[in-house]
Specification:
By secondary structure, this protein is an alpha+beta fold. It contains 8 helices and 7 strands. It folds into 2 domains: 117 residues, Helix Hairpins; 149 residues, Heat Shock Protein 90, CATH 3.30.565.10. A 5-stranded mixed sheet has the order 2-4-5-7-6, covered by helices on one side. A two-stranded antiparallel ribbon has the order 1-3. β4 and β5 form a beta hairpin. α1 packs across α5. The protein is elongated.
Length: 288
């Protein structure tokens, strides 16, 4: 090999790799695949952990809502029973057999309602699984409305309020389960009473529209926000109301209303404005 005065050779060594790209890729492809696999595992594990945290938080919120709502489901019958007992103890009433019988009948009915509320969660669960077979028969909607009003009228009277029925429908025969549909009306009335910070002022209307009968229950209470109107029939939905008259949420009652009305091939909706009250409307098909 010859070198010049600068000790550099005039020759150059050139090495050619005809498949250099495939050679390089073959050496690193394993490392790339392993990196992708491990990165995917990390992403999946993180996503799963985050999902579980969110799920656990939601379960915790549902449990809290469940306790609050079930407490409130018992408040109305307990309040009615207490008012009836206080009335019976009044010396001016205890000798009036008719009034005593009326209050004892109320106590019995509300006791039955409390027992029914114990089954409320099971009913909702069975409804969601389509396991609840609700037997239906021909009933008069006005009879159910009048029966439902008797369940809450004592509480309304005690708060110096009123329930005014305007039962204008001429045809009210529907195919319904008497117990469940009475509970539907009671739950809406309960809701109207709870969300009336002052004396409850409630109107109940019926009218015929085509081959349907409409039941409207209007209150002049605190009303609901637009967000609450959209979600009010969802199970465990709770609107933030602060500490206003101890109302913690809409609870199971309206979710139950929705499921029962749907099962009766009916339709339920609500119109509401914050501070101006709410109107619940139920539409049921008439039977001949």
């Amino acid at each position: 090999v010859l070198y010049d005065e600068n000790n550099q050779s005039p020759y150059k060594l050139l090495v050619n790799f005809p498949n250099d790209r495939s050679f390089i890729l073959s050496t690193i492809i394993g490392m790339i695949l392993l990196s992708i696999v491990f990165t995917s595992i990390i992403v999946v594990a993180y996503t799963s952990a985050l999902y579980q945290l969110i799920k656990q938080r939601k379960i915790s919120e549902i449990k809290t809502d469940f306790i609050n709502n079930m407490t409130h489901e018992f408040k109305t019958p307990i309040a009615t029973i207490n008012l009836a007992l206080d009335a019976i103890r009044n010396p001016a009433i205890i000798d009036d057999k008719d009034k005593v019988k009326r209050y004892l009948s109320m106590i019995k009915e509300e006791n039955k309602r409390m027992h029914a509320q114990v089954e409320n969660v099971l009913r909702i669960s069975k409804l969601e699984k389509n396991e609840l077979n609700i037997s239906k028969e021909r009933v008069k909607l006005h009879d159910l409305v009048e029966d439902a009003i008797t369940h809450v009228e004592l509480i309304v009277e005690d708060r110096q309020g009123y329930i005014k029925p305007f039962l204008n429908a001429s045809k009210t025969s529907v195919l319904a389960n008497e117990t469940h549909f009475t509970n539907v009306i009671v739950n809406i009335l309960d809701n109207a009473i709870k969300y009336s910070p002052n004396a409850p002022e409630i109107e109940v209307y019926t009218e015929n529209i085509g081959n349907n009968v409409l039941l409207k229950i209007t209150d002049h209470g605190s009303g609901m926000s637009k967000t609450a109107v959209k979600h009010v029939f969802e199970k465990f939905y709770r609107e933030s109301t602060g500490n206003i008259h101890n109302v913690k949420g809409h609870g199971l009652g309206l979710a139950y209303v929705k499921r029962i009305v749907d099962d009766h091939q009916g339709y339920v909706s609500v119109e509401s404005e914050k501070g101006k009250g709410s109107t619940f409307t139920i539409k049921l098909p008439l039977i001949s």
